Every structure is written in structure tokens, then in C-alpha cells.
Amino acid sequence: DSPEIKDEVLRKDDRFLTLLKDVYVESKDPPVQVKDGGGEHLPSKQEEKRLTKLGHLEALDVKKVPKGKISLVEALTLLNNHKLQPQIWTAEKIAAEYSLELKEVNSLLEFFIPFTVLEFRKETKKAITSHKPKELT
């Protein structure tokens, strides 16, 4: 607000001006590094896809998957088929049918086993009878 301060701010100081002329700044940007994302976002080529083999469960899953991969419904279906008919649904047939590698199919069949639901008829169920607790002496 005061005129003295305003004049002081706007006044050029020749001594500082000569010092400023002697200053030379050189700047270099660091080299640009390209992050390798493994091609996640920008595929280098168009992936080859295949239609899924879902039968009556078609509405529950995706319609196309990349070759070498299977959908969740397909995985459950092939595991169940192998469990029910292992002589027909061998690892080789599954690999050929779903365009998978044989070693991956063998690992899938070894480590993933679908659950079995057992339902007991009422006449075979045993009722739990209560008993008197033993008295400690």
C-alpha cells in the first residue's frame, strides 16, 4: 500500500542484474523409459478366438474365448465329464476339443476336482439320540 515499498519492488538493481546475466542454467531431461507391460493393454496382434462349447449353459457364460484358454463354465463341464467318463474324456481328447496344451490339461485334471453331492434317503439317516452324561466321581 505504501508508495516507498512499491518503488522498492519496481526498482531495478543494476548489481543484481549483472549477477543474473552471469548465471547460465543447462537442463537435460532424463531419458524416457518405456515400461514393459507385457502387452496387456495393446496387443501386438489380434488374438485368435474360438466359440465356446457350452450346450444348454450357453446363456451363463461368454460366447468367445482366446485359443488356449477356457471359460469357467467350460472348465466345470470338462471336469465333470472327465469325472463321470474318464475313459472317454481323456486328457488328450480334452486338449484337442478345447484347444489347450496337454500339460495344462493334466494339471487341471490333477489339481481341480469337482465336488460330489450325496443325498441320503430319510430311512438311512440315523437319529442322534441324547444320552445322559456320565457322572464324574
DSSP, total strands: 2
Supply Rg.
Answer: 37 Å
Percent in helix = 25-40%
The number of helical segments is: 5
What's the average pLDDT?
76
Low-confidence stretches: none
Enumerate the strands of the largest sheet in spatial order, edge to edge or round the barrel. Answer: 1-2
Query: Strand portion, in percent?
Result: under 5%
* Morphology: elongated
Report how far the terminal alpha carbons are from each other.
Answer: 100 Å
Structural class, judged by helices and strands? mainly alpha
* Strand and helix order: HHEEHHH
Largest sheet: 2 strands, antiparallel
Protein architecture, described:
With 137 residues, this protein is mostly helical. The chain has a domain of 49 residues. It is built from 5 helices and 2 strands; from the N terminus they run H-H-E-E-H-H-H. It has a two-stranded antiparallel sheet. Helix 4 packs across helix 5. The longest helix has 13 residues. The protein is elongated, with a radius of gyration of 37 Å. The mean pLDDT is 76. Binds calmodulin. Interacts with NDUFAF3. InterPro entries: NDUFAF4. Belongs to the NDUFAF4 family. It holds the Pfam family UPF0240. This is NADH dehydrogenase [ubiquinone] 1 alpha subcomplex assembly factor 4.
